[in-house]
Amino acid sequence: MAKKKNDEALSPVIGTILMVMTSVMLGGIIGIYAFGMSENVRNIRMVSTSVVQSGSDILITYQGGQAQPDLSSMAIIAPNTTTFIAVDSRGALATTGTPVHPDVGSVMVLSGAGTSGQDHVVVLGYFNDGSSQVISDTYV
Q1: For 118-129, how does the pLDDT look when each residue is reduced to its tens digit (9 = 90+)?
Q2: Domain extents for the chain?
């Protein structure tokens, strides 16, 4: 008795799955644009800071970035949840005053804010168009 040869493989099944996946993805993309969901997507501004701890001080260095010309001011939320703002271009911090844009390379110091544990620091950027963005959210 001769063995029956089976020439079919998984390729028809895989091809069908790929076609269905492609159709679902295209439908989703078209749906996003058709229903205006893409309007809620914000541009992410590229601005950088570094946050380090030195003894009991926390040092935040503003490093600039692509969106640096659009940055109007910065705020820092210290580990004790106090909000500080940069009040001069060299990076001096205060809880009140007129916020300013720090110079690239400015070091902002949270004096005595660091502990021996993990300290949570958040740096916020405020931009000329009225928008804001978290620049850094880290533990030191």
Answers
A1: 899 999 999 999
A2: 11-40, 48-139
What secondary structure does DSSP assign to 59-105, as a single string?
A: EEEEEE-TTGGGEEEEEEE-TTS-EEEE-STT--EESSS---PPPTT
| Closest C-alpha among 31, 24, 61 to residue 136 | 61
Q: In the structure encoding, which two tokens stand for residue 93, read together?
A: 């911090």
- In the predicted model, residues of the chain with pLDDT beneath 50 are none
pTM (two decimals): 0.69
Q: Read off the amino acid at residue 6.
A: N
CATH of 48-139, one of 3.30.460, 2.40.50, 3.30.300, 2.60.40: 2.60.40
